[in-house]
Amino acid sequence: MCDKIKINLVVNGEPVTFEVQPHVSLLRALRDNYYYDVKCGCEEGDCGTCTVLLDGIATKSCITLAAACEGHEVWTDKGLGYNDALAARLQAAFVECGSIQCGFCSPGMIVAGVHYLKHGGKADRRAIKRSISGNLCRCTGYVKIVDAIYKVAQEIERGALA
Amino acid sequence: MKKNLQLVGTAVPRHDAWAKAKGEQLYSDDFTMPQMLYGKVLRSKYPAAILRGIDISKAKALPGVRAVLTAADVPKNEDITKFGQMRDVGGGFEGLYKVLANGKVRSKSEAIALVAADTEELAEYACTLIEVDYEVTEGVFDPRESIKEGAYVVSSEDKDNIVMRTKVEDGDINAAWALCDVVVEGDYFTTPHEHAYIETEGGMAWIDENEVVTLRVGTQVLEHYRTMAKILGLPHTKVRNMSVPMGGGFGGKEDMTVEMYLALLTLATRRPVKMVWSREESMDTHAKRHPEYLHYKTGATKDGKIMAQEVSIVMDSGSYTYLTPWVQMYSTQAAAGPYQIPNVRVQSVSAFTNNTFSSANRGFGGTQVNFAYERQIEELAAKLNMSPLELRRRNIVHNGDPLPTGFIPQGHIALEELLAKVDKELNRTPKPERLPDGRKVGRAIAIGHMVYGRLTFLHDSSRVSLRVELDGSVTLRAGVPDLGGGQASVLCQIIAEELGLKITDVHPYIMDTHLTPLCGTTTATRQLYMSGNATYKCVSIMKERVLEKASSILGYPPDMLELANRKVYLINNPLVNIPFETVIGHISNDGGELELIAQFNAPFTEVPDLADIKSRLNPDLTYTCHGVEVAVDEETGQFEMLRLIAACDAGKMINKNSCEGQIEGGAVYDALWATHEDLQWRNGITKANNFSTYLIPTSVDVPDVETIILESGGGLGPYGAKGVGEPSDNSIAPALVNAIRDAIGTGLNLNKMPVTAEKILAAVKGIDIEK
After folding, report:
1. Closest alpha carbon within chain B to A24
2. pLDDT at A162
């Protein structure tokens, strides 16, 4: 086994240092440090439940090397909810719209939705579906997930959200 | 029953939604303990082999490896399979359950040895040091072969591969063919189906200060603790599961997963142990929906009255028995579909093979036969030159009609309404021949019936308790495994409704075998029916107590009072009222009981005669109808689903969002089963064992489900509710394939899954791929 290396990054607004082996993914590094809201579903970049914002971009943490995140900024669903009004609103919309069943895809799905909305995504069901197509959900059939993102996109378009 | 419902039927947020949205819900993999070890399973390299020896010395000698266990280390390595039922059923229903392999290895995924080590990587490495001496054998991978005399015998324990044979017969099938003007016949195949929950199996175990083997494992069946105790040689009281919500189950977490392995490793090491399966391990290992080979022959008069249907089914049980006999009962009972056919014979046989074992998957034997009979109806309609809708209308069952077993369902049968609504919606505009891009358009409707509640000869029961606190809030205690359907939250909604509270006034404490009354399994679409009724019974007793006390305080009879807004009101003069909390205070002061437990029992029957089933098997059924519009590209054979309409008689919605969520999610769960979800089993090896090869629907693969919910009030659950979890994935697969048939104008190559683009393209060109 290789020696561990230290990486410095900012997670949910706080500077942290992770000691990890060089081959370890960002997902493993986060979960080893108790960021348990970042879920592991496949570790192959297929399911998207490990999605986090890396420098503001929705990123699958299981196929991102932790060592490559030196100096970068990571936001998880839980961190976003307590620090970002739009993310908190989207979380609430997931609750209101019945978008959550087992909830295992929800953190990654919400991060994907936050990315969409923060990058000018409109209240357009087809575009929303494309933006979350890298995140698998086996419970909902996606209808109510799209409903929630659509609802917040509408609120942004109406100026109801900053 | 309360008339003016305030909360039941609304889309009030589920209690568990907030934690899940905020990333605060902890699942099986989200716990850790000091001194915790990691467990790994060594699995067979071959699907069929004889285990000649296992040498664990090198693995055991590795520093940091704390335990290596084989079958010889398991106190009672073999037991009969039990699935939380309260009754020993016997009659061949309970097959062998083996913890670790010995003798013949039956499938590639079978567990041979367990390792616990300081790190996950070390445990994985130690597995590679275990030397297994295999004598590789031929194996058998097709149940049609394995039922034959002289076939390779899969197990070391049996003389042949037959798991069960059974039959349902009604009328005189042999004489009936003479009454038919038109007969259609076909062979059908349904593929094994993967649950593909996003959370793989996992959890942890430790030994507590009272020598209790304690687990944190998400499971659909808390009652597995009893089987565990038996295997470990411990009293039932010394095994506990403080379970956690599952990241999806769909039947795949109905059999034991990591529980036994964790318990053995924690007992061997006296340290906490964690085990989580990788996606590949999960897909290689856990049960699949039974592959079924079906033959259907159906005859009708020229005016479309179905007179006869004969069905034979061969089911692939895979490597072990597990729930095969039960699934077989469902398939056999449901095989003739929701049609009134006077002469029916259904024969079925299940058999072992060296494939991954088959067991529960949402639909439980109902979906396979549904695909076959709805394909058959479509071909019969074509041969009769009659619209498939009209043929269905002329033959569907109505209230009072018996099933071929002779049982007359008690609940409402809404097929006529469902067909009418879906047809109206699907054909609200005339069907174009082609889209502007040239693709052919097809539309079709399929129907289905599926039971809710367990087999009645299992003598099913559920119990819940509730405690009213002195501030008027309520704690529900229920051993109800929540796999994501909102199984616990609907119980809170019922309590809040009846006591006039907000749903947030009711706190659920769930899923702990030592602290919560056992609700039975979250399977068989039974929780709302069973635990919903237990909850309704429990809260009704509490409600009566509250009304009696309020009556003595206010001086009006209890039947003139009602509970709402955390108060007890005089119905015809709301100014006369008393806070709920105050009434509770009086009950407490007077020594009244504020903690209650209540039990609901399903109807009980005896085990039927398998050679000729003539009795009730289930409490009731739920009816569904799906409508699909597709566009088929005749150049490539590829299709796009343009519309998906899902309709269901829910009896009564308890939570609107949760009910719609089941019907939408169920439709998508099986939407691509017939066409895209292919595990690519090849001689016992699962070639598609991850999400880049096994393709479940993404958000862009399916249209927005258009949901139609009927509320007939004709169910056996609380407020007339029916179960919807499993029925919701019935009838979608044949609706899709029949829509493809409608587009291309032929049923060629469409009866055997997977219905690939290649097969569709061949059908368009008139090529029979089997010739």
Report:
1. B121
2. 60
> In which band, very low, low, confident or very high, does the pLDDT at A69 lie, cut at 50, 70 and 90?
very high
Q: Which of residues 178-197 of B touch A (CB under 8 A)?
A: 195-197
Residue B58: strand, helix, or coil: helix
**CATH code that applies to domain A79-157:** 1.10.150.120
CB–CB contact B248 A133 (8 Å): no
Q: Using CB atoms within 10 Å of the CB of residue B236, give its burial: 0 to 12 exposed, 13 to 18 middle, 19+ buried.
A: middle
Q: Answer whether B675's CB lies under 8 Å from A29's CB.
A: no
The pTM of the full predicted model, rounded to 2 decimals, is 0.97
pLDDT number for residue B4 = 87
pLDDT digits (tens, 9 = 90+) for B46-81: 999 999 999 999 999 999 999 999 999 999 999 887
Cβ–Cβ of A102/B199 closer than 8 Å? yes
Average pLDDT, chain B: 97
CATH architecture label of B17-25+461-601: 2-Layer Sandwich (3.30)
Q: Provide the residue ranges of all domains of chain A, joining segments of one domain with +.
A: 5-76, 79-157
| Mutation choice for A interface testing from B30, B36, B38, B198 by most A CBs within 10 A | B198
Q: Is B162 helix (H, G, I), strand (E, B) or coil?
A: strand
Contacts with B354 (C-beta within 8 Å, 6 or more apart), sequence order: B47, B48, B106, B107, B108, B139, B140, B141, B154, B319, B684
Beta-carbon contacts of B176 under 8 Å, excluding residues fewer than 6 positions away, are B299, B307, B308, B342, B343
**A36 contact residues in B (CB cutoff 8 A):** 26, 30
Do B474 and B466 form a contact (C-beta atoms < 8 A)? yes
ipTM comes to 0.98
pLDDT confidence bin for B2, thresholds 50/70/90: confident
Which member of B14, B483, B699 has the closest CB to residue A129? B699
Residue B134, classed as helix, strand or coil, is: strand
Contact B164, B324 (CB under 8 A): yes
CA angle B585, B586, B591 (to 5 degrees): 100
pLDDT of residue A97: 98
Is pLDDT above 80 for B85? Answer: no
CATH class of the domain whose range is B37-137+199-247+253-285: alpha beta
Domain with CATH 3.30.365.10 in chain B: 17-25+461-601, 292-455+607-764
* Cross-chain residue pair B247–A104, CB shorter than 8 Å: yes
pLDDT at B84 over 80: no
* Residues of B whose CB is below 8 A from A95: 13-14, 17-18, 21
In which residue ranges of chain B is CATH 3.90.1170.50 found?
37-137+199-247+253-285
What is the band of B325 on the pLDDT scale with cuts at 50, 70, 90? very high
Is pLDDT of A1 > 70?
A: no
> Given 1.10.760.10, 3.30.365.10, 3.40.190.10, 3.10.20.740, which CATH number is that of B292-455+607-764?
3.30.365.10
Chain B residues with CB inside 8 Å of A94's CB?
A: 17, 21
- Give B92→chain A minimum CA distance, Å: 34
Closest to B199 (Cβ–Cβ): which among A41, A78, A94? Answer: A41
What percent of chain B lies above the pLDDT cut of 90? 96
Kindly determine whether residue A129 and residue B692, on different chains, have CB atoms separated by under 8 Å: no
Q: B321 near B96, Cβ under 8 Å?
A: yes
The mean pLDDT of B201-224, rounded to a whole number, is 98
CATH of A5-76, one of 3.90.660.10, 3.30.450.20, 3.10.20.30, 1.25.40.850: 3.10.20.30
